[in-house]
Structures are given as structure tokens and as C-alpha cells.
Amino acid sequence: MPRHSVPSPARVRRKRQRYVEKNGRCNVQHGNMQETYRYLTDIFTTLVDLNWRCSLFVFVMAYAVTWLFFGAIWYLIAYCRGDLDHLEDDKWTPCVNNVNGFISAFLFSIETETTIGYGHRVITDQCPVGTMLLLLQAILGSMVNAFMVGCMFVKISQPNKRAETLVFSKHAVISLRDDKLCLMFRVGDLRSSHIVGANMRAKLIKSKQTQEGEFIPLDQTDISVGFETGDDRLFLVSPLVISHEIDAHSPFWDMSQAQLEKEDFEIVVILEGMVEATGMTCQARSSYLGEEVLWGHRFSPMMCLAEGFFDVDYGAFHHTFEVDTPSCSARELSLAAARLDAHLYWSISSRLDEEPALTHEAANQPDSGSANSKGGEPTFNVGQMTDIQEQAGLGELNGSVATDQSESEA
């Protein structure tokens, strides 16, 4: 029977639903909300948050409904006063000259609210009700203009459009940096105008079960990217590689390369700052799933020195290359380094303590080797100690032992 290859855990792992999309959009929808009236208490933000199709519809309808409403009132005044019955009477003073129907009343409403003033239709001084209505329409028209124009201006100048030119690398990488495992990703700004006071944050989104049995589906854990040292505050003039050192406080402390392929998590990165051109706060977001974190990779260089300036090649922004990286976790790597340091420390100190006693014994008992061999006791040779010390890398100590041995033989 033919043998079938067993798929790797990375392939059989169910694709995780993103909490934050690569373009920064939060993949969360609110449903079954009972207190929808709260949207009306902040109508300005509600209108700004609408999509462009709805915003343009509200913008047009706000003016059209206002013009129609006041146009109907102007027509109603002319009808009640009898102005429409005395259109050919030169001795009759109407409320508004040259208003002979609903269309003309509607046009007069548009001219009044937009302050066009063509001069053909004008209100007379024989209509106190019309004077009050004129004041009311002028005030309400100014409020509608301020509100709707303000909404459109804020929507056009929203700082989230500036975030479209802030780019994150497609993958995050894990490799050694200064003999420590680090999680790294790259961020860059495509515009010449800079982000002032740029600040970087990162979150680990992962399901969690507490000791009491409570299940938290989207638990958020901070990932330090230099908050303690101030490295999270960026001078984002050229692309930067953001590094998270995997230490004892990191959520990746016990994660090895094999465990990385099995874990189901998401890393959300957030860049905040003030737009230099407008002074408005901007936020750019992106995320990395477990399969988008490359173990044993490093980002390719993308900056070179040209004639009088630094040239940045954004074609290599997402490129990575493999480097030698241990597949064990950061904890295991730290324990191995600690054991190696302890072994070197104790071996050096024990050799230094034994050196004077062995040298003195070799000087007083030149024939102690044959005597001890007869009695069945173990023998010690200064030369053997020298070999051990040479294995430990103590070159200076070897010279001193050899000098003492030559003096004792003399």
C-alpha cells in the first residue's frame, strides 16, 4: 500500500480569524445593542463615522429638506394673506414680491438661506410674519451650514488616511540579536512629512483559561518594545526594525520553534503619532498571525549611502533571509548559557585553589609518584593540571604553572 505523508502541524492548524486585519481594520462587529439612542446624543461623531455614500446623502438631504420646508412656509404665508389672488393688482403689497406659486417660493427660500440675493424677489415691510421667518431661516441656515460643512471637513481631513502611508512588514521574524532571542518587525513611512512623537505598542491576542476555570477568548498581553528604556519612542525618518527582547517577562519565554508552529495567537502592533502637516493624531495598526512569524530569519538591509543623502530601497522592505538561530526556547537558551558560565567559573576557581598545594607537594616529594603508586594511592601530576587548564582557555595560568614546575625541579 502506498504510504501517505503526514501533514505538519502548521498545515493542519485551523486558520485563525484575525482580530485586526493587515490594513489595520478591526474585525469586530457590534450586534444586539439595546441603547442605540446614544448615537443620537453624539450626532456629529455619528455623521463623521458614516461611509461616504451615507455622508453625501445626509449632506444633500439636509439642505434640500431645509429649503423645501421654508419654501413651503413662504408659500403658505402668501396663500393665507391672499397674495396669490392679487398677482395683477398693482395696489396690493404682498409679503414677498414676485412670489406667484410654490416654485417661486422655493427659489426665494434658496436665495434667503444661501444669501445669493438676485434682487428679483424681496420681502416687503408690510409682513411682520415674513420678517420673523426670515430671521429664523437665516439663523437655522447658518447652523446647518456650520454643522454639515464641519462634518465634511473633518471627514475629508481624517488622520486615518495618513495611516495609509505607514507600512508594516508582511512578516515578523525571530532571531538572535546580541546573543538574545528577539521578535522583530519592520515599520516605515512613505511620506516626506514625518510623524512627530511616534510611539510604538504591541499586544499579544491569545485565548486564556484562568486558574478558576474562566475562559478568556481574546486575552490581551503587553509585549514590551522598549517602554522601560524609551526605545518605543521612534524617530521615524527611515524604516526601523522594532525589536522585542524575549526575556523572563515576555509571553514567548517558553516558546520554541516547534511550539511556535502549534500555537494559535495574534500579535497586534500599533503606531501612534502626530501628523506634522496637520497637527492631528494618527494611528496605524497591523497584525501577525503565528504562521506569519518566521523563526531564524532576519530583515534584509535596505539603506545605502548615496552622494550627499541616504538612499532607502523600499523594494527590500518585506525581504528576509535565514540566519543560524537555535530552535530552543529563550528559557532553555538562558539556562544553557548560565550552566556554561557556572562551569567556567567553578573550574577556574578550583584550579586556582589547587595550584599552590600541588606545586608545594611536587617540590617536597620529587619521588612521590613511585611511592604513592606502591601504596595504591592516586597520583597528581602538575603537567596534567596544565592540560586541564589549557582546555579551559587559561593561557596565562598555564605559564605560571610551568614556571613553578621548572623552579621545583631545579
From TrEMBL:
<feature type="domain" description="Inward rectifier potassium channel C-terminal">
    <location>
        <begin position="166"/>
        <end position="333"/>
    </location>
</feature>
<dbReference type="InterPro" id="IPR016449">
    <property type="entry name" value="K_chnl_inward-rec_Kir"/>
</dbReference>
<keyword id="KW-0851">Voltage-gated channel</keyword>
<dbReference type="Pfam" id="PF01007">
    <property type="entry name" value="IRK"/>
</dbReference>
<feature type="domain" description="Potassium channel inwardly rectifying transmembrane">
    <location>
        <begin position="20"/>
        <end position="159"/>
    </location>
</feature>
<dbReference type="InterPro" id="IPR014756">
    <property type="entry name" value="Ig_E-set"/>
</dbReference>
<dbReference type="GO" id="GO:0034765">
    <property type="term" value="P:regulation of monoatomic ion transmembrane transport"/>
</dbReference>
<dbReference type="GO" id="GO:0007399">
    <property type="term" value="P:nervous system development"/>
</dbReference>
<feature type="transmembrane region" description="Helical">
    <location>
        <begin position="134"/>
        <end position="154"/>
    </location>
</feature>
<keyword id="KW-0633">Potassium transport</keyword>
<feature type="site" description="Role in the control of polyamine-mediated channel gating and in the blocking by intracellular magnesium">
    <location>
        <position position="145"/>
    </location>
</feature>
<comment type="subunit">
    <text>Associates with KCNJ3/GIRK1 to form a G-protein-activated heteromultimer pore-forming unit. Interacts (via PDZ-binding motif) with SNX27 (via PDZ domain); the interaction is required when endocytosed to prevent degradation in lysosomes and promote recycling to the plasma membrane.</text>
</comment>
<dbReference type="GO" id="GO:0034702">
    <property type="term" value="C:monoatomic ion channel complex"/>
</dbReference>
<feature type="compositionally biased region" description="Polar residues">
    <location>
        <begin position="400"/>
        <end position="410"/>
    </location>
</feature>
<keyword id="KW-0472">Membrane</keyword>
<protein>
    <recommendedName>
        <fullName>G protein-activated inward rectifier potassium channel 3</fullName>
    </recommendedName>
</protein>
<dbReference type="GO" id="GO:1990573">
    <property type="term" value="P:potassium ion import across plasma membrane"/>
</dbReference>
<dbReference type="GO" id="GO:0015467">
    <property type="term" value="F:G-protein activated inward rectifier potassium channel activity"/>
</dbReference>
<feature type="transmembrane region" description="Helical">
    <location>
        <begin position="56"/>
        <end position="77"/>
    </location>
</feature>
<keyword id="KW-0813">Transport</keyword>
<keyword id="KW-0407">Ion channel</keyword>
<dbReference type="InterPro" id="IPR013518">
    <property type="entry name" value="K_chnl_inward-rec_Kir_cyto"/>
</dbReference>
<keyword id="KW-0630">Potassium</keyword>
<keyword id="KW-0812">Transmembrane</keyword>
<dbReference type="InterPro" id="IPR003276">
    <property type="entry name" value="K_chnl_inward-rec_Kir3.3"/>
</dbReference>
<dbReference type="InterPro" id="IPR040445">
    <property type="entry name" value="Kir_TM"/>
</dbReference>
<feature type="region of interest" description="Disordered">
    <location>
        <begin position="359"/>
        <end position="410"/>
    </location>
</feature>
<keyword id="KW-1133">Transmembrane helix</keyword>
<comment type="similarity">
    <text>Belongs to the inward rectifier-type potassium channel (TC 1.A.2.1) family. KCNJ9 subfamily.</text>
</comment>
<dbReference type="GO" id="GO:0005886">
    <property type="term" value="C:plasma membrane"/>
</dbReference>
<dbReference type="InterPro" id="IPR041647">
    <property type="entry name" value="IRK_C"/>
</dbReference>
<dbReference type="Pfam" id="PF17655">
    <property type="entry name" value="IRK_C"/>
</dbReference>
<keyword id="KW-0406">Ion transport</keyword>
